[in-house]
Amino acid sequence: MTALSSPVPAPSAAQFATRLVFLVAGFGTATWAPLVPFAKSRIGMDAGTLGLVLLALGGGSILMMPLAGQLAARFGCRATIMVSGLIATAILPLLAVAPDLWWLVPGLFLFGASIGTMDVAINVQAIIVERDSGRPMMSGFHALFSLGGIVGAAGMAAMLGLGASPLVATLTMLAAMMALLFLSQGGLLPYGSRSDGPAFALPRGIVLLLGILCFISFLAEGAMLDWSAVFLTGAHQMPTAYAGLGYAAFAGAMTAGRFLGDRIVHRFGPVTVLSAGGFIAALGFIVATLAPVWELVLAGYALVGIGASNIVPILFTSAGRQRTMPVGLALPAVSTLGYAGILAGPAAIGFVAHLSSLSTAFLLLAVGLIGVGVGGRWLRRL
What we know:
This protein is mainly α and about 375 residues long. The chain has one domain (about 10-190, about 205-380): MFS general substrate transporter like domains (Growth Hormone, Chain: A), CATH 1.20.1250.20. The protein has helices spanning about 10-30, 35-45, 45-95, 100-135, 140-160, 165-185, 205-235, 245-260, 260-270, 270-290, 295-310, 310-320, 325-355, 360-375. Helix 7 runs antiparallel to helix 12 and helix 8 packs parallel to helix 11 (about 295-310). The radius of gyration is 19 Å and the shape is globular.
């Protein structure tokens, strides 16, 4: 048995369970986004402090990624996904009420670590299920993650808008996440990929390029998660209770793009889709930054979602096709570089916002995404 393969074909139950856990992961991650302005106001943080605090979330994620791969290999996808998912849900109420940095920072670190572990494990499951099925499924799985983002962010925004407290809204989301997790349990794989080599290897050649492009894409996604609501409340005075609509617009557009992703890539090719996606996402940040009204900001966020929707799935597929490094080493390397964008991105955006403005930070992201559009053409060498 080779790495990233399973001893038996995955049943339809495994495909259904994979979709559910991608939905839960997006759901849980997006639940945090509308809580950011509340935490900022409750603790009294400026943009620079908030950026530093958000470093804890990304740090927890990226530090657990190599270990998460080993956990999935040793204990199986089912145990790794269930334990990490339950830990993430248990921490969410703390993030809703944390009274100071002494509670918020460790809570964010643990939340990031558990979400990061779950993310790696569900992608291991997805790779095994996709290969056993004999047909492309990765964009569809990632579409469910984005759908979870819509439901999580919009659901939180709706409850907060109706007057629910952050804690009550979060507990409602927690109950839904736990129900979906237990519903998926039977279809999760009791095994993971084999891991006979090191947990992590330094990327080289085309793998390094894939990792850099993934870094920029995740940086942009992290900006939407952590800063989209803050920009709306700060630059356009949108009520805090409704600011989660910004992430919902982004996630909704990303979901649509990913549901159509397999057909679009088949029609135009991965290089064209990746390059166009980078340029469209860059345009979205420019529109959001220069928009005179909040409605156009939401339109800009939607463009970011459409453009970025298939970048990461294409990069993961490309990591599996390249021959510079073994796939079992290339995938963790690309993923770790990508999640470094989540680690460094929110904090870097906060520092830029503190020194200049959040608008400047968004425009710098647009420049990076233009680089993705240009750099994606190098994938023709695969």
